[in-house]
Design brief:
By secondary structure, the chain is mainly α. The radius of gyration is 19 Å and the shape is elongated. 61% of the residues lie in helices and 8% in strands.
Length: 99
């Protein structure tokens, strides 16, 4: 049961990584800006999408710069899913697929 939960968490983590990288791509195409008042102070208005903080925006844009590495993670995840499908059981992350 524990290995199944670990496997599920790893799958969700991979999906989250992929989603945040895609958000980073969108943010790079439409960079967020902050609005400053006449004294140069940041005002409360910003062009970030609702629910996206400046910190998350920065992290997502960093992920978008490393798409090749994320693609490698996706290949490993897909291989694990294929192994799970062919064996009929969940495959933990540290398990190696053998035919």
């Amino acid at each position: 049961m524990r290995l199944i939960k670990i496997s599920d968490a790893q799958e969700l983590g991979g999906a989250l990584l992929d989603a945040e990288a895609r958000i980073g791509i969108l943010l790079k195409e439409n960079p967020p800006t902050s609005l400053r008042d006449e004294f140069g102070r940041l005002s409360r208005k910003a062009t970030l999408p609702e629910g996206i903080s400046w910190n998350l925006s920065s992290q997502c844009q960093q992920l978008a710069e490393h798409l090749a590495l994320i693609e490698q993670v996706n290949v490993v995840r897909d291989l694990r899913l294929w192994c799970s499908y062919t064996t009929g059981t969940k495959v933990p992350m540290d398990w190696r697929c053998r035919e």
